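Appendix B. One record, verbatim.
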Amino acid sequence: MRTIRTGILGLLLGLVPLASAQELTSPDGNLQLHFGLDNGVPTYRLDYKGKGVIAASRLGLEMEEASLTDGFTQTDVQNISFDETWSPVWGEYSRIRNHYNEMAVTLEQKENHNRTVLLRFRLFNDGLGFRYELPEQKTMNYLTVKDECTEFNLTGNHKTFCIPGDYDTNEFAYTTAPMSEIREGMEKNLRKKGYESRTTSFSVQTPLMMKTADGLYINIHEAALVDYSAMLLNVDDKAFRLSAHLTPDKLGKKGYLQLPRHTPWRTVIVSDDARDILASQLILNLNEPCRFEDTSWIKPQKFVGVWWNMFTGAGNTWAYSDYYKAKPGVTDYTKLTPNGRHAANTAHVKEYIDFAAENGIDAVLVEGWNEGWEDWASYRKDCQFLFTKPYPDFDVKELHRYAAAKGVRIMMHHETSANAADYERQMDEAFQYMVDNGYNSVKTGYVEYVIPRSEYHSSQWMNNHYIHVVKRAADYKIMVDSHEAVRPTGLCRTYPNWLAQESARGGEFESMGGTTPTT
């Protein structure tokens, strides 16, 4: 690892040209970042091989307690070069190079109690990451986020690959059109699941992919989404301007902070070859290293699942009984009349285990195995499911014995019906139950509107919840595949037991009319 530092002392001594405090170049020289203050308003610009990627765009944070958008003077600049190679626990590459040049600019509002904001820019060979850092200071402590004023001003009417902005789901079909035409295109492509929460403005989700008229590919996203609201992008389809749109809670609050604090990284990946966008490791490199000392138990796996026939209308159900008033933990399910269509039964699951063993598939996911599916989507119950109570026709111990004899794992399914509060109450018992019965991986689900009812799927509280689940699962050496959660931002580097985030339009939509590929 090699780190080279230059700072304000070097500027004062004349060792570093003053211009370097305002400009940053990628290690290979292809990307140039330009930073400045326009009448006290921080702005940045990004070029690639002499072509404009992001035109001059403003930066800033608007808090209910303080406006951190203008009135700034620059008081310090620190520049470093960083180069290391690290090994991920799993992934496409056995070694990843983390090579960037960094510029950290300290800004002060001298007429507003010397409030301080640090802007940290990292320029890699394939793109830019930047974030806001709020150090501990005398005049600010607790803050409520009103808006983030980050802009991405584009250089033209780029071809755009996008889905509509939504606080609760990413499961939309993609629209491919020039930015000036995406509003109409996205409206035509809506195919709902029933719990969407459209944004309050014309917006799109990230990661957002674009192609310029002269063949440049641009991808805008974020990295290391921790204790903060997920970012969508407001769209000005006349000026070709994108701006940050943070997911609020249902009171309209976009985040609660206590200093010191920093935001997630805002990222712009750039290349004249589309394959480089897919191959980029920039998002992972902007996340913290692995938090676990022992990762020997983390092993990616392939699985098949008992779930498809429930979607296709072939007659199978998740529920054991049709008695919709059944209450998990209260109703004696052995006294209910089975509906005869329950797919998660011992004999049927054994068929899947046989298939997995014959075809070299590691595990079998079983949906509908536990009490609570009779009226699981009611959005009225304080407890939808129990995660230690199998239905009478699902023999946990026999299936574990049978699967182990065939060299196959059973994969646990924890559908929460987005009742995150209740899942947190049950989590330790649920994970211990998994350990006791030979499970080492879980697929979590968050269909429906979130409980607590004041939250959305990508609000600050829920983003903290997903990380809490992953960290607690690691204490039991359990791997996690989350469904209907916030989209990935590279946290699988920090928590490598978070193997998958099914936050996109998936195979289940093939039972709802299909998914049409686009180019």
